[in-house]
C-alpha cells in the first residue's frame, strides 16, 4: 500500500509544480475566451429552452435548461480536451474556440442587416479569422517582456 501512496504523492507533486510554474505566464486569451464562451453557452441554453416552449422559471423548464447547458458544456470541454491531447497549445485552443463562437454571430448580424446569404457567410468567415488573429496577437503582445534598463 505504501508504494501506491508514494506513486500518487509523486504524481500530485509533479502536477502541482507544473501548475505553479504556469501561473507566471499571463493567459489573456484563455481568460477572455472562457468568459465569452461561458456567457454564450448560458445564452444558448436559455434560448434553446424557450424555443422548445418551456419557461425557464418553471420546474421542467429549469431542468431542461440545466440539461442543455450541461450537454453544450460537455461538448465544448470534450473538444478542448481533444485538442489538448492532439498537442494544440492552450492559446491556440482558446483562440479557436472563441473564433468558433463569435464567427456565426458575425454571420447572423450581416444576414439580418443586408439579407444576403453569400455576403453574410463571407463576413462570418472573415470575422472568425480576425477574432482568431486578434486573440493570438493580443496574447503575444502581453507575453512580451519589457526591455530591462541598463
Write out key terms for the chains shown.
single chain; 150 residues; mainly alpha; flat
Could you characterize the architecture of this molecule?
- The chain has helices spanning 2-22, 28-51, 59-85, 90-114, 117-143.
- Helix 2 crosses helix 4 (90-114).
- It contains 5 helices and no strands.
- With 150 residues, it is an all-alpha fold.
- The radius of gyration is 21 Å and the shape is flat.
- The protein has one domain (27-143).
List the helices and strands and how they pair.
Elements: H1 2-22, H2 28-51, H3 59-85, H4 90-114, H5 117-143
Helicity range: over 70%
Number of helices: 5
Distance between the termini: 56 Å
Task: Estimate the strand proportion.
Answer: under 5%
The largest sheet, given as strand count, sense and whether it forms a barrel, is: none
What is the element string, with H for helices and E for strands? HHHHH
Count the domains: 1
Shape: flat
Radius of gyration: 21 Å
Mean pLDDT: 84
The structural class is mainly alpha
Count the strands? 0
> In terms of per-residue confidence, which ranges show pLDDT below 50 for 5 or more consecutive residues?
none
Amino acid at each position: 500500500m505504501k508504494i501506491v501512496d508514494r506513486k500518487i504523492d509523486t504524481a500530485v507533486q509533479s502536477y502541482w509544480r507544473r501548475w505553479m510554474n504556469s501561473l507566471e505566464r499571463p493567459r489573456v486569451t484563455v481568460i477572455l475566451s472562457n468568459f465569452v464562451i461561458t456567457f454564450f453557452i448560458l445564452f444558448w441554453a436559455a434560448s434553446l429552452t424557450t424555443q422548445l416552449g418551456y419557461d425557464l422559471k418553471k420546474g421542467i423548464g429549469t431542468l431542461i435548461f440545466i440539461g442543455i447547458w450541461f450537454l453544450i458544456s460537455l461538448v465544448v470541454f470534450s473538444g478542448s480536451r481533444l485538442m489538448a491531447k492532439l498537442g494544440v497549445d492552450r492559446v491556440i485552443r482558446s483562440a479557436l474556440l472563441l473564433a468558433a463562437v463569435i464567427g456565426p454571430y458575425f454571420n447572423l448580424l450581416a444576414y439580418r442587416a443586408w439579407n444576403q446569404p453569400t455576403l453574410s457567410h463571407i463576413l462570418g468567415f472573415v470575422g472568425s479569422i480576425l477574432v482568431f488573429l486578434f486573440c493570438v496577437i493580443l496574447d503575444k503582445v502581453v507575453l512580451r517582456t519589457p526591455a530591462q534598463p541598463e
